[in-house]
Amino acid sequence: MSTQPLAEKEISSQLNQLEGWSYSDNALKASYSFTDFKKALAFMISVGFEAEDLGHHPEWKNVYNSVEISLSTHDAGNKVTSKDIELAKRIVKLAKD
Predict the structure, then answer these.
(1) According to a count of CB atoms within 10 Å of the terminal CB, is the N or C end of the chain lower?
(2) How far apart, in whole angstroms, are the C-alpha atoms of residue 23 and residue 51?
């Protein structure tokens, strides 16, 4: 996967496949809510395994049953790359499970 920043047109095109995600401030962003803290934490752990597999890690915040995620690539000047798109796709899949 490339660490070259994607053009906004490409990002917009990819967002159609990323349910619940938006693009702002040079990052992909999403928020997820769960029934309780344990489910939010389990989701974060699952995302962590996917992130580690890709060698690409999110910025995130957890408060009780909610998880806010922001994705950009530090090696690309904090811009969105194909790494961010791939991790977001995996996160969408995990959120549906």
Answers:
(1) C
(2) 19
CA distances from 61 to 5, 28, 34, 65 (A): 24, 14, 14, 11
State how far the alpha carbon of 44 is from the alpha carbons of 7, 12, 51, in Å.
Answer: 29, 26, 10
Structural domain contains residue 1: no
CATH number at residue 17: 3.30.1360.20
For residue 2, tell me if it sits in a domain: no
| pLDDT tens, position by position, 7-36 | 999 999 999 999 999 999 999 999 999 999
Residue type, 40: A
Residue 3 lies in a domain: no
Distance separating the N- and C-terminal Cα atoms of the chain: 25
